[in-house]
């Protein structure tokens, strides 16, 4: 199925999981075939600001225990079947697909001092939830190669904001972060979201709503806390 970029973008917006850019794969990109055909185009889907959260929240009105990964898988799998594409996800595997590398091929995003990718417009308030691989070589939207906002940020407030100094250049102390989240002193991070992420001045108008920030912090702690408990008991 041939589809132009504006129509694809509108269809993804309607499904609640916005289009985040795309590229024509090279041999070294590690993009798998689209079914039985070589990959012609990879497009990334995800969130930028709170738009995806609104769609996910509506789905949870009828299923309060619905997991974000399950919702993403269902929505994107249906899109892939409709559009004649293959669906890939960062949370299934192995193999685990190189979504961070693909993101930097797809649009102007850059590693931040916190380790996550920063967008010149959305700051740290965005993410990648899935990819669609098309056998066709689709016409892509022109890429806006704005520079990294971190390159001109001398103060680095993100590194100073963490109460337990979990972030340093090239390092993220996950154990210190998770331990803080489990303590009473970590309530501000658990309820309002990571203080370091919130300290970044870029994209403040796109910050996630508080409910979404709490949701992600609970999910992060649940993922990492069991491993921390195992380490502390040995």
UniProtKB/TrEMBL annotation:
Chain ranges of the 4Fe-4S ferredoxin-type domain: 140-172
PROSITE patterns found in the cross-reference section: 4FE4S_FER_2
Domain of life, source organism: Bacteria
Protein name: 4Fe-4S ferredoxin-type domain-containing protein
UniProt organism field: Sorangium cellulosum (Polyangium cellulosum)
């Amino acid at each position: 199925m041939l589809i132009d970029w504006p129509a694809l973008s509108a269809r993804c917006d309607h499904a609640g999981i916005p289009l985040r850019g795309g590229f024509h794969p090279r041999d070294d990109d590690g993009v798998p075939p689209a079914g039985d055909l070589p990959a012609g185009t990879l497009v990334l889907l995800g969130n930028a600001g709170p738009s995806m959260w609104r769609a996910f929240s509506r789905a949870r009105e009828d299923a309060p225990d619905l997991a974000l990964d399950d919702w993403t898988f269902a929505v994107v799998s249906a899109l892939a079947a409709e559009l004649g594409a293959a669906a890939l996800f960062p949370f299934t595997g192995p193999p685990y697909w190189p979504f961070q590398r693909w993101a930097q091929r797809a649009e102007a995003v850059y590693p931040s001092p916190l380790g996550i990718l920063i967008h010149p417009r959305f700051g740290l308030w965005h993410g990648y939830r899935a990819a669609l691989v098309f056998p066709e070589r689709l016409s892509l939207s022109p890429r806006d190669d704005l520079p990294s906002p971190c390159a001109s940020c001398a103060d680095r407030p993100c590194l100073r904001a963490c109460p337990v100094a979990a972030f340093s250049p090239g390092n993220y102390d996950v154990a210190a972060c998770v331990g803080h989240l489990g303590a009473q002193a970590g309530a501000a991070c658990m309820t309002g979201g990571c203080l370091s992420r919130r300290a970044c001045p870029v994209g403040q108008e796109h910050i996630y709503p508080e409910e979404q920030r709490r949701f992600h912090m609970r999910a992060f702690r649940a993922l990492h806390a069991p491993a921390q408990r195992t380490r502390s008991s040995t």
